[in-house]
From TrEMBL:
It comes from the Archaea. Transmembrane segments: none annotated. This is Ion-translocating oxidoreductase complex subunit B. It holds the Pfam family FeS. The keyword Metal-binding applies. Residues 2-61 form the 4Fe-4S domain. It comes from Candidatus Methanogaster sp. ANME-2c ERB4. GO terms for molecular function: 4 iron, 4 sulfur cluster binding; metal ion binding.
Length: 219
């Protein structure tokens, strides 16, 4: 993706009113400031409305890709922190693998179940599909917030409350591949907030890594 294409895609996601409420004369100027990291999408009053909520998520996903094509650092959209690398799903999988530990000890989901939960330290409610479970640890693929799953009643899910995220597993697609035992900053590409996470590399083989001791705070 060339920078001009990425910027055009970004402009198309903005309201297009050219109202000046954000401090810029045109939405195109606002888009350029988003790419440069000098302003956040929350500075546009219209992007906070329900009608533009899905577009806000799309913008958060697009910005890191534009920055990478420009040769810029990998920076979180919410916290503006710099990551060592971006983490993408394993080939053929919908998102990075995550290991969860539900705080409710009575929770024992089965493979294929859809879970609704909130990671400790994150304000966003997640939906995920179980791919393995054992000894109190649930391995999942994140499948989205509700608006990515269709209508309000299109699927059944199990509410499991707050969970501790124990690990991520995926492939490094941008930035450097870390060594085992390194404490790293990373940006999961499927993260709805595009928030930089931190953790410790416990396995590294080619571009595939496993990260444990996950924290939303950067060490």
């Amino acid at each position: 993706m060339r920078e001009t294409e990425g910027l055009a895609d970004l402009i198309a996601l903005l309201p297009g009113y050219n109202c000046g409420e954000c401090g810029f004369r045109r939405c195109a100027d606002f888009a350029a400031a988003l790419v440069d990291g000098t302003i956040g999408s929350e500075e546009c009053p219209f992007m906070q409305q329900n009608a533009f909520r899905e577009r806000s998520v799309q913008i958060a996903e697009l910005l890191p890709k534009i920055g990478y094509e420009r040769g810029e650092p990998i920076v979180g959209v919410i916290d503006h922190l710099t990551a060592d690398f971006a983490l993408a799903p394993l080939p053929g999988e919908p998102s990075c693998r995550e290991d969860l530990h539900p705080f409710d000890s009575a929770v024992h989901p089965e493979t294929g179940d859809i879970l609704r939960y909130r990671p400790l330290g994150c304000p966003i409610t997640h939906f995920a599909r179980v791919i393995a479970e054992g000894h109190g640890v649930v391995t999942v693929h994140l499948i989205g917030p509700r608006h990515r799953l269709g209508g309000e009643d299109d699927f059944e899910y199990q509410e499991i409350g707050i969970c501790l995220v124990l690990a991520f597993e995926g492939v490094v697609v941008r930035g450097r591949v870390p060594d085992v035992s390194e404490t790293v900053r990373f940006l999961p590409e499927h993260c709805m907030m595009q928030k930089v996470h931190s953790g410790v590399i416990v396995h590294s083989e080619g571009d595939r890594v496993r990260i444990e001791s996950i924290d939303l705070k950067v060490w």
